[in-house]
Design a protein that fits this description.
One of its GO terms (molecular function) is metal ion binding. The chain is an alpha/beta fold. It has nine helices and six strands; from the N terminus they run H-H-E-E-H-H-E-H-E-H-H-E-E-H-H. The longest helix has 18 residues. Bound molecules: uracil. Uracil binds next to helix 4.
Length: about 200
């Protein structure tokens, strides 16, 4: 029940948090999911990528970013030698798939956010990449469009964050020309790599 708070410090491991997500009904998405999708990657990664919500492939497998968007995300990370085995942990604003992949409602985001805040605390990343407007809004509250703020370093709760395009947006905009979204993404990921080194 979303009215019952999840205090910071509730979980001592991602395993414990996952057990609660697997039986969560804090919002209506708990009624329609196949699997809660918590995260994947290195639990001690210096970079955390936060997406929106599981799609069909993720709902089926219980793992985030395993469909077409995920493959593109891995390719973008690999272009600067970043991997989910070593450098990156991936999670989402919402742990459960919204019907028809609609954008999660503010109520659904609010109900799920305490889990993500606990994930951030436990993984303790140096850098957080916010993919797409839902992730930016969910974490920082900034409602500006992603085109305006992508590539800018923000500070949130003492952590470095960068809004970046969502890979699904890049799938819909495949041009690699100078100044196109894909070109900008490759600039952004290089800035991330430079900040890590
Ligand atoms: N898109 C997201 O935002 N998250 C996923 O896990 C998959 C696709």
């Amino acid at each position: 029940d979303a009215k019952i708070a999840i205090a910071p410090g509730t979980y001592s491991s991602i395993t414990e948090l996952t057990q609660d997500c697997d039986r969560c009904h804090r919002c209506p998405l708990g009624d329609t999911r196949t699997h809660a999708v918590v995260g994947r990657g290195n639990l001690k990664a210096p970079i955390m990528v936060i997406g929106e919500a599981p799609g069909q492939n993720e709902d089926e497998t219980g793992l985030p970013f395993v469909g077409r968007s995920g493959q593109l995300l891995e390719k973008i990370l690999a272009s600067v030698n970043l991997t989910t085995d070593h450098d990156v942990y991936i999670a989402n604003i919402n742990k459960c798939r919204p019907p028809d992949n609609r954008v999660p409602t503010p109520i659904e985001v609010a109900a799920c956010l305490p889990y993500l805040l606990e994930q951030i605390r436990l993984v303790d990343p140096k850098i957080i990449l916010l993919t797409g407007a839902t992730a930016v809004k969910g974490i920082t509250g900034d409602k500006r469009g992603i085109t305006k703020i992508r590539g800018q370093w923000l500070e949130w709760e003492g952590r470095l964050c960068m809004p970046i395009f969502h890979p699904s947006y890049l799938l819909r905009n495949p041009s690699k020309e100078r100044g196109a979204p894909k070109w900008l993404m490759w600039q952004d990921i290089q800035a991330v790599r430079a900040k890590l080194d």
